[in-house]
């Protein structure tokens, strides 16, 4: 995989190309084509300082750099997206090249609606407890409507909206939405996959 990249760089070879073995492996593990993976590699490399570009596969890009990507810059869920796709053990939401590929793979048109809904659920689960409760739903609505005073819902409007969401989605009536309930609602909404591109 990426060990070949480091060895080739040490021998003075071009570090701007992804090793063929790694490319094949990434193709098997993602919904991305070879061209999309190579483009992702180039984009990820460009986010790194020049001296770190010799070992792209072992480098991590800080969250602040990831957030400069046009796809995330204006996304209301940008911080949650970085959090969900980051494998950083430091909790800084930095991304490795594999994290970056996973994110792009889920964003891609080729990703299944099950995969998309799974990640949407994780992004909307602000407290990472495995359910969407009232607090998660309130944060979700605030992200979608904007944080400005003029767009913020009144307490009564928020309460009514959350009640409607739970009524529609909370099949076991426990006051929260679990992943299977979320996926059930999504499966009845054929527009979900296309609207999900806005979120992701």
From TrEMBL:
<dbReference type="Pfam" id="PF13499">
    <property type="entry name" value="EF-hand_7"/>
</dbReference>
<dbReference type="InterPro" id="IPR002048">
    <property type="entry name" value="EF_hand_dom"/>
</dbReference>
<keyword id="KW-0460">Magnesium</keyword>
<dbReference type="InterPro" id="IPR018247">
    <property type="entry name" value="EF_Hand_1_Ca_BS"/>
</dbReference>
<dbReference type="InterPro" id="IPR051433">
    <property type="entry name" value="CIBP"/>
</dbReference>
<protein>
    <submittedName>
        <fullName>CIB1 protein</fullName>
    </submittedName>
</protein>
<dbReference type="InterPro" id="IPR011992">
    <property type="entry name" value="EF-hand-dom_pair"/>
</dbReference>
<feature type="domain" description="EF-hand">
    <location>
        <begin position="157"/>
        <end position="192"/>
    </location>
</feature>
<keyword id="KW-0479">Metal-binding</keyword>
<keyword id="KW-0106">Calcium</keyword>
<feature type="domain" description="EF-hand">
    <location>
        <begin position="112"/>
        <end position="147"/>
    </location>
</feature>
<dbReference type="GO" id="GO:0005509">
    <property type="term" value="F:calcium ion binding"/>
</dbReference>
<dbReference type="GO" id="GO:0000287">
    <property type="term" value="F:magnesium ion binding"/>
</dbReference>
<keyword id="KW-0677">Repeat</keyword>
């Amino acid at each position: 995989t990426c060990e070949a990249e480091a060895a080739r760089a040490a021998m003075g070879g071009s570090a701007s190309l992804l090793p063929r073995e790694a490319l094949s492996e990434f193709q098997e593990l993602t919904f991305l084509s070879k061209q999309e993976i190579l483009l992702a590699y180039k984009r990820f490399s460009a986010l790194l300082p020049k001296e770190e570009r010799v070992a792209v596969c072992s480098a991590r890009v800080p969250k602040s750099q990831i957030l400069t990507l046009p796809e995330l810059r204006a996304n209301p869920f940008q911080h949650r997206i970085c959090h969900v796709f980051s494998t950083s053990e430091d909790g800084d939401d930095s991304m490795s090249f594999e994290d970056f590929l996973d994110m792009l793979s889920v964003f891609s048109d080729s990703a299944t609606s099950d995969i998309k809904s799974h990640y949407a659920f994780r992004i909307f689960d602000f407290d990472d407890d495995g359910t969407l409760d009232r607090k998660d739903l309130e944060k979700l609505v605030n992200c979608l409507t904007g944080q400005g005073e003029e767009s913020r819902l009144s307490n009564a409007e928020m309460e009514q909206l959350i009640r409607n969401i739970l009524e529609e989605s909370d099949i076991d009536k426990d006051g929260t939405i679990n992943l299977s309930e979320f996926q059930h609602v999504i499966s009845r909404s054929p527009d979900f996959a296309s609207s999900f591109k806005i979120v992701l």
